[in-house]
Amino acid sequence: MAIIITSLLFALFGAWLGVGGVWLITLGGSWYYAVAGAVFLIAAWLVYRRSMAALWLYAAFLLATLVWAIWETGFDWWSLGARGGLLVLLAIWLLMPVIWRRLSGTDGRAPLILVVLASLGVAGYSMTTDPYDIAATLPTDKVTPEGALGANFPAGEWHFYGRSPYGQRYSPLDQITVENVDKLELAWTYQTGDVRLPSDVTETTYQVTPLKIGDNLYICTPHNLAIAVDAATGREKWRFDPKIGPENQRQHQTCRGVSYYKDASIAAGEACAERVYLPTSDARLIALDAATGQICPSFGNAGTVNLMEHMPHPKAGYYYSTSAPLIARDKIIVGGAVNDNYSTEEPSGVIRAFDARSGAVVWAWDPGNPDRTEPLGAGETYTANSPNMWSTASADEELGLVYVPLGNQTPDQLGMGRSEHVEKYSSSITALDLDTGRVRWVRQTVHHDLWDMDVPAQPSLIDLTTDAGTVKALVGPTKQGDIYVLNRETGEPVIPINEVPAPGGAIEGDFTAPTQPVSDLTFMPKPLTGADMWGVSPFDQLACRIEFARLRYEGRYTPPSVQGTLVYPGNFGTFNWGGVAVDPVRQVMFGMPTYLAFKSQLVPRDQVPPADAEARGSEQGLNRNEGAPYAVIMGPFLSPLGIPCQSPPWGYVAGADLRTGKIAYKHRNGTVYDMIPLPLPLKVGVPGIGGPIITAGGVAFLGAAVDDYLRAYDLTSGRQLWKARLPAGGQSTPMTYTTEDGRQFVLIVAGGHGSIGTKAGDYVMAWTLPKQ
Hints:
Blueprint: H1 2-26, H2 32-48, H3 53-73, H4 77-94, H5 97-100, H6 109-127, E1 170-171, E2 185-191, E3 203-204, E4 211-213, E5 216-220, E6 226-230, E7 236-240, E8 252-253, E9 259-262, E10 274-279, E11 284-289, E12 304-306, E13 319-320, E14 326-328, E15 331-334, E16 337-338, E17 351-355, E18 361-365, E19 394-396, E20 401-405, H7 420-425, E21 428-433, E22 439-444, E23 460-466, E24 469-477, E25 483-487, E26 497-501, E27 515-519, H8 538-550, E28 565-567, E29 581-583, E30 588-591, E31 598-604, E32 621-623, E33 630-636, E34 652-657, E35 662-668, E36 692-695, E37 699-702, E38 709-714, E39 720-725, E40 735-738, E41 744-750, E42 763-768
Parallel strand pairs: 1-36, 3-8
Antiparallel strand pairs: 2-42, 4-5, 5-6, 6-7, 9-10, 10-11, 11-12, 13-16, 14-15, 15-17, 17-18, 19-20, 20-21, 21-22, 23-24, 24-25, 26-27, 28-31, 29-30, 30-34, 31-33, 32-33, 34-35, 36-37, 37-38, 38-39, 40-41, 41-42
């Protein structure tokens, strides 16, 4: 029976690999799989005939596979294992007495044993090396004794989303150090009670970074509850529910942060002298008394500003706030998320500055009509469908500038009919005058963006020490992996930017930019090849190779197509809304570059199926682009087993010197512990979404990865120092603060992320060192 089962199994494998391998050859891919299919079919026949020649044949095949695998991938264990792991197991099966004792002819066990041992030896060696690892160290010198932090408040507080208007995600606290971080203990856990609902859209996520002012922490939740808790104990002090209600057209149901403002015109202790501003997913901005959580009636209309005012096409669920507004010079700078790829008739991406006291519009900058910034009159509307800022701005109050990361005009993959202004401001970092909203400079990171390469993250501001003196600089991470280091006064590069040729061949009626900008400081990945395709076995790897060969792909910026285009880096980006953290004293950065390819396929309008009234908003799957000649199908490039088709690593931690523009280290980050049925802590280097922080103690903290941990790293080397298991996905950016007794805490929200499938929850968790 074992002989029959083995021969049938080998025949099945041979048929699969043979048919798929021939298909791959017709697509211009590797011949290996067709040859492997033929070998399996012959081996199946030999086993069935009980011939020892099966072992000789399989030994030769396994040796050839080993040589081929090393030639294709080098000594990368994860790539070698995908090619040879199953084949080695089959070899061991052939060496079992139940098989070889039933075979006749010259004994073939010895050569097969030798090849198995050679394969295991190569596997063992490859486990001790990592060809993708970059191991060096960041400089430890304090370039400047006290880095410019961008705000004047106590070191133990966190007043803005990125701690200060500079968006550095850096804390001057140094109680927790490289030497003692492994002693951190859980101090308290608080649960908000706001959990993911069955009726929620796919991307219902918990991404908030709390603020810490005085004794209080201020948070928001996915359904936009605002809550104040005691920073030392996690005890709830108040909560406010804006009662936003469900809406299946929203693509995102989240809140990344609230904003804080101290009104100098109101006496301390009076109602609304200190305020928390809550952005909501039904397009409101609500002012709350920071002490009580009560609405501040003097703001806007009875405490609320309607962000849909003067909006064209004010459809429910099409425009909303996901990120914390920035407050600078007594103004609240508000952007908003506009649903991607729903329609050509969508709300505006206008960025508005509201008076922080009254809620009146001070200025409104519309990228579709950039020369007019004064408030609109009755009956007027902003430009429909203009590029938007769905992330958070940063500001330099001394220079009087606010820096806005801009997205692309939707539909993202269709560039026909874009205006001159849209072409200029899409996917750019733009500096606006804080007092007037007028454009001071613009730096575009993608020309004629057809790939959803929004500038996704808050720029970080830092005063860089250079050979020519101190430069007021801006550090802007992008989805495509470039880090733009610019003079924030002028927008000119501090680290060089070069225009490089880009692929052409857009669909009829559209065009591509002949060149695209690339910063000299870049985490841009190498282009993918067929050899980069991956799987847990040769079978799903073959499926990925076939799919890769069928897609259009000429490297980064391959234009969208009806055929289907591979987008790499993908829509999640190398960096996303979590951005990077910068140390203004050592003048270095820490980040989490992620590499996950996506697919996009244009669908002619006459082939788009009727709309489903019950469908929930999502950025993946079919995006209808109503009113445009094409819809688009988008999603990650995954194998039939639902794992990435490209070989790992998919995620790193990395450090770079901002003065030289050199990457010091890149290390695989995260395990597959929560990605696979068996909880194995295999350090593959997994994707993630979220952001890091840096502390003056030389420690960086990061959750984000798709395994549920908060981790601490040595900023100098990137070495992992400590980790804490989270009860849900940690796709938020942590923060740190001190309490009245002087103890430093590290806090993260663990609530999961709908799009990447991490566990949902409602946890706020804080760690501190043991009391001495």
